[in-house]
Amino acid sequence: MEEHSGHRQRLRESFLAGGAKAMPEHQLLELLLTYAIPRRDVNPLAHRLIERYGSLAAVLKADVAELKNAGLGEYAATLIALAGAMRNISEKPRKKQRLNNPERAAEYCMQLLRPHRYEVMYLVSLDSGLKPIHEDMVSSGTIDQSTVYPRIIAECALRHAAAYAMLCHNHPSGNPAPSNEDIAMTKMIFSALSGIGIQLYDHIIVGDERAYSMARNVYIPSDINNNNQGTEEKST
């Protein structure tokens, strides 16, 4: 316990002396965790979370349920989610651009997924003008039908009063082409959202600075998307 106490004191002193920029990401997360987990060495936990999500920024974007699934207790998960939410509020808000064409949607998803080295999926809730309302990470790790829960996605979309919804996930291999599992899962989510009156606008898969639109390739039926037909892949 004395050894842990000394290490924690050194972390606090490092932060007070040099601020966040003077410390590696895993130490910043470790310091944050010490305030929720007072009697345990949290260094291994901080490393596991950074490895799982790929970056501290990605850890702070996770919600409480996702963090609890990653092995955190309620206090620690709440503290991290709260820190992330406060960080988002304090940042200068991005101009809400309408994602009313595949190029804009692809750029938005590539920016959202860029910090992640591992496969993750987000649900982007959209208003009636196709402007983003909120982003929820709904799955991480290898994504297939067994790891994506339509109920969670529907609850997120309803919680943010979405008129439309957009899925996006990354392929760390670099190839954004959908697998058969991706296609089947997209159809499953489309049906689940349709049942509660929300249109799945698109499902965009991001690879190495390329994005594949399910809507452009007629995997998602939509009157809106029928007006946005074009090439199947965008490169930047």
CATH fold-level name of the largest domain: Cytidine Deaminase, domain 2
CATH class of the largest domain: Alpha Beta
Biggest sheet statistics: 6 strands, mixed
Strand order, sheet with most strands: 2-1-3-4-5-6
Mean pLDDT, to the nearest integer, reads 84
Write the CATH homologous superfamily of the largest domain.
Answer: Cytidine Deaminase, domain 2
Instruction: Kindly provide the radius of gyration, computed on alpha-carbon positions and rounded to a whole number of angstroms.
Output: 19 Å
How many helices in DSSP terms? 10
Per DSSP E runs of 2 or more residues, the count of β-strands stands at: 6
**How helix-rich are the residues, as a percent range?**
40-55%
Q: Which stretches are poorly predicted, pLDDT < 50 over at least 5 residues?
A: 226-236
Structural class label: alpha+beta
Which outline best applies? Answer: elongated
Terminal CA distance: 52 Å
Helix-strand topology string: HHHHHHHEEHEHEEHE
Strand proportion: 15-25%
How many domains, as an integer?
A: 2
Q: Any guess at the CATH architecture of the largest domain?
A: 3-Layer(aba) Sandwich
Summarize the structure.
The chain is an alpha+beta fold and 236 residues long. 46% of the residues lie in helices and 16% in strands. It is built from ten helices and six strands; from the N terminus they run αααααααββαβαββαβ.
